[in-house]
Design brief:
By secondary structure, the chain is mainly alpha-helical. The chain is 59% helix and 7% strand. A 3-stranded antiparallel β-sheet has the order 1-3-2.
């Protein structure tokens, strides 16, 4: 992701200010999921702390904390004067347990979103089953 790809990255980071989960934690999880999902690749550059904070409309220190913790975890690397880059391995190279956790986290977020929109579990299952069937058919071609 190039530095000028800020808007697509920002549109993929969803924050819930009412959830009780600290915003810096949400930013970290969102970036981790973008990495595990292959949206962000090793070597991609992230926006500056100031730019991301401005676009997300959060405090500069909130993004700085998320970046610092991601750096300490070895997911990103901040290089003074050069920028912040993704270091984490791709999802396919992660241990099965981490991949399973990423899938569970993505599934939970999806379910929370659609339930919040008022869909019932049976409706969700029906749509998912159709999507999986369509996906499998397209894979067979």
């Amino acid at each position: 992701m190039k530095p000028n790809d800020l808007i697509p990255l920002v549109s993929r980071i969803r924050l819930d200010f009412r959830s009780g989960v600290p915003i810096y934690t949400q930013i970290m999880k969102e970036i981790e999921q973008l990495v595990s999902g292959g949206i962000l690749q090793v070597g991609d550059q992230l926006p500056t702390v100031r730019a991301l904070a401005q676009e997300l409309r959060v405090n500069f220190n909130t993004v700085a904390r998320a970046y610092r913790l991601l750096d300490e975890a070895g997911i990103i690397s901040t290089q003074q004067g050069r920028g912040t880059y993704i270091l984490e391995t791709k999802a396919s190279e992660k241990p099965d347990e981490e991949r399973e956790q990423a899938l569970q986290s993505l599934s939970l977020r999806y379910l929370q979103d659609v339930l919040r929109l008022g869909y019932q579990p049976d409706q969700i299952i029906e749509v998912l089953e159709k999507q999986i069937t369509d996906w499998r058919q397209s894979e067979d071609k």
